[in-house]
User: Fold this.
Amino acid sequence: EDKNFALRNGEEHRNLRFSPNSQITLHKGGDRPYLVYKEDTSKTNQGGLKSRKAIAKQVKAFDDPENPDRCIVNLHQKYLSKRSQAAKCTAFYLKPLRKPKADCWYA
Assistant:
């Protein structure tokens, strides 16, 4: 269980996307919901001949029912719910609005 998905540098954060093929997905199977981060590439998986069979990193982060205000699953879902629904942007990180609305904080 890793709460920050082991992202190693700013480029990995900048490459996160929100789209049908997002690297972070919510899974509700089993006893507890959890997020799964699947990397595209890493510093050790640059696409050369030696890394053709490399397996992309997958990291899970489970919910924290004992601390719901700091639960990464709850925070992720709230963040997604406050994104502009009209935005065509696939970037994961968005700029906060100067005057947020009840249903939209980021654009």
The longest strand covers residues 34-38. The mean pLDDT is 81. The first helix runs from residue 10 to 14. The chain is about 15% helix and 15% strand.
